[in-house]
Amino acid sequence: MSKKIVHLVNASLAPLEGSMDSFTGGVYADGNFVKDSLLDRGKPARLPEIREHLPGTYIFGGCLFSHFGHLIWESLSRLYAIRQCDAYPILFLSPNDKIFTLQKLFFKTIGIRNEILLVKEPTSVQNLLYAPPGSSINPLFITDEQIDAMSCLHFAGCNSGRKIWLSRSKLPSGKIMNEDFIESEIATRGYDIIYPELLPLREQVKLISTSDIVAGFAGSQFFSLLFAKEICAKFFIFNRRENIAATIPYAMKKRKVKFSKHVFDIQYVSGDKARASTNFVHFHPEKILDILR
What we know:
The chain has two domains: about 5-150, no CATH class; about 160-290, Rossmann fold (3-Layer(aba) Sandwich), CATH 3.40.50. It is about 20% helix and about 35% strand. The protein has helices at about 70-75, 80, 100-110, 145-150, 180-185, 200-210, 245-255, 285-290, and strands spanning about 5-20, 20-30, 30-35, 40-45, 50-65, 90-95, 115-120, 125-130, 135, 140, 160-165, 190-195, 210-215, 235-240, 260, 265-270, 280. Strand 6 (about 90-95), helix 3 (about 100-110) and strand 7 form a beta-alpha-beta unit. Helix 5 packs parallel to helix 8.
């Protein structure tokens, strides 16, 4: 078992209150807040008055979100520890009142069979197996131990010549509004247009790892590459907002895949500019087409 995993006796858990963007909660050991039990967006709650008690042994999972990218990079950040802790139940702090079906399917696909429980009341835990996160957005890092734990899906061989475009055009927001023009053009050049949100995780990982070329606008659809044991593709990433967030290129460097990123002028159309839901238009879609020739 990793030396990073510690055994906390009679730990106290404060439930997550707020939203994914700003919240309180966390883990307390001997009355002291465990600093890395929350993400950078979280603040410690006051030491809670305990309302529930859990006898036995549990694993601390962290903060469970439904957003695809944050689920992978943040909610699964202790996967390296979960893999080593047998079949003990996992405790998550969550802004939601239930575990969604898609989250259950997600966990099943990557081989997590543990019972998963949401902490919704201040709770004491007789034995809590606690580990620091193996990945984080701020500060940005992912450990080799975490990468080894994530790369669990294997697909034999590469699909020589297959080219795919990871489309965002069917999403309700966070789009490039003239993406359909780009898709219609590259489809004539042999690209398959893929809508990742419509596919099971296993199929997403298979496509992104076995195709020769994977291209698209920056977004969390690229994070599924972390679950592949081997990756054949070269990746082309184009900006969806003013710039490309550092997380995606960082993940690709850690997985030692070939990629290039390209930033072109765009125009704001609608949505909250401070959030990923913003919609833009690319001024020069022909530059994207030139790169993908």
